[in-house]
Each structure stands twice: as C-alpha cells, then as structure tokens.
Design a protein that fits this description.
The protein has 191 residues and is an alpha/beta fold. Helix content is 42%, strand content 13%. It contains 6 helices and 4 strands. Strands 2-1-3-4 form a 4-stranded parallel sheet.
Amino acid sequence: TNMPNILEKLSPSHSKSWLEQRIAIPSIMLANKIRSKCYSFYLRHAANTSKNLISPRYAQLNFNLHESNPIYGTGGSRWASKVIELAAEIDTLEVLDYGCGKQTLRRALSESSIRVTGYDPCIPGLRHRPDPHDIVVCTDVLEHVEPGCIDAVLDDIKRCTKQAAIVAVATKPALKFLEDGRNAHISVKPL
C-alpha cells in the first residue's frame, strides 16, 4: 500500500533503478534458475541418450557454459572448407556434426548443398542419438569429454561414421572454465 507513495517521491531515474533492483533483476534471476532446473530435470529423464556418453551433471555444466558464453561452441565454421573438400572427394552431401555446439558449421555450409545434422548432448533439441552419416565432423569436442566416457564416445563416433571422419582435438587447456572451477578442456592429452 505504501509503494505508490514511495514511487511518487522518487525521481524517474530513482524509480527505474528501484524497480529494476526490486522486480526486474530478481525476476530474470528466477527465470534463469527455473530454466536451469527444468533443463536439469530434462537431462535426468531424456530418452534416447546413452548414459555412457555424458553424465547429467556434466551436461548441465556445459549447457550453462553454452548459455552464459556466446563464443563457447562456435568453432565448427572453421572446418567448412575441409568438409566441402571431403564431401566432394567421397561424393556425398550427408554430414553429421558430432558435438555441434552452436551449429556454426551448419550455418557456414547453408549456401552449399551439403546437409549438416547437428548432435550435441548438452544442447536441448540436439541430444537424440544420431543416425550414421557418410561424414562425421568432430572438432573441439573430445577434449571436453569426461575421462570415463572417452571410450564410449569414440565407439559412438565410429558407429556414426559410414565413410570418413574429420576429428580435431585440442591438446592444451582452454581459456574457458566450468562453473565448478574446472577447465573446460577436462581431457587434455599430449599430442
């Protein structure tokens, strides 16, 4: 009941600041928390996903990093020319981007006739186990795989690859960190 009287006494800039602090910012924080909890529930109950490929907790940490960092998961487009070359060499238009992140490879090839299917266990809508494709592209992914899941992921990449694969793996720590403090490259191995 006192709120209108308080707001009338504040200048317009104070009123806006007061409203942002009391209503807008907490509302945004609550929406983010709800979205994160919903995605966490989705991860625990999602169908068609092998538990051997990624743990629900690690998928959640990567989802959060994708959400908070606009450049995380955007390196796929760098491989577009190599994909075009390989597709022409083996005469196919069928590509699976395994660990596609923000799907920049698909966007980079959108003007070509190559069809790119994205798969990423950390991105809602892209988590369903992919069918085999003529070409599998897996770049800047394996260094993000949990150590106990590497064999299962490699087996799954093999299952998905009909003819050829382009695989690139970083051998040094990332510049990005997960919410739990670990480096985003949790499986760095020597060259």
